[in-house]
Structures are given as structure tokens and as C-alpha cells.
Amino acid sequence: MVAAPVQCDVDGISKAATGCLAAFALAGPELTLFSVYHRGSGPAEAAVPLPWLVDVPTKMEPVFPSEPTDWTLAWDPTPAVLTLRAPDSPVSARTVAVRTTNY
To answer: Model confidence over 15-41: pLDDT tens digits?
Structure first.
């Protein structure tokens, strides 16, 4: 498991007008489950590298919620970076699956 604050104040609690994001990944040989939590008010934005997926053919699919939402999630498989934007909203979360396509 990889856990890291993506965008927060030093102690991990947002004190600014911008939102606070925390990210967690469970990585396996064919699947990485990546969850992002928007923990503050205000919009939030981050580009999250997933270095263990560099040069690995992959595809991303939403897990939760499975329907389109007001979040923007974009997977760039070449550098293995997930770019996300959460709107100005209360606490919310998203989970995506990044699957390797070479099995």
C-alpha cells in the first residue's frame, strides 16, 4: 500500500481556502486501486505519479462512483501520472482501477 498526502498543509489538515486531498493506492501485479479523498472545502487539484506503472501498458476505469461525476480524472499512461480535480464541495472520494494490459 502506498499512502501519501497529495495536497495539504504540513500537518495534513487544510487551513486554506483550497481543498485538501489525500491519496491511497493498493498495488498488485495486474491491478492498482487508487482512492483519493477530498477532505476540505474549496476546489483541489493534483498530479499524482504512480512510478511502479511507468512503461507498463495500462488503462484506467472508475470504480466508485461508477457513473460520471463532477470530478475530473485523467490517466496519462506514458509517465504514469493521474491528474485529478475536485470541485468546491464538502468531503468526497473517488476510487479508480488502473489495470495492466500486458497479461
So the answer is: 444 467 788 888 888 898 988 888 776
The CATH number that applies at residue 30 is: 2.60.40.1180
59 half-sphere exposure, CB direction, 13 A CA radius? 4
- Let me know: does 21 contact 39? Beta carbons within 8 Å: yes
Full strand arrangement of the beta sheet holding 72-76: 44-49, 81-86, 72-76
- List the domain range (segments joined by +) for residue 52: 2-100
What are the distances in angstroms from CA 45 to CA 7, 48, 57, 87, 90?
A: 8, 10, 25, 9, 15
| DSSP secondary structure, 64-103, as one string | ES-S--SSEEEEETTTTEEEEEE-S-SSEEEEEEEEES--
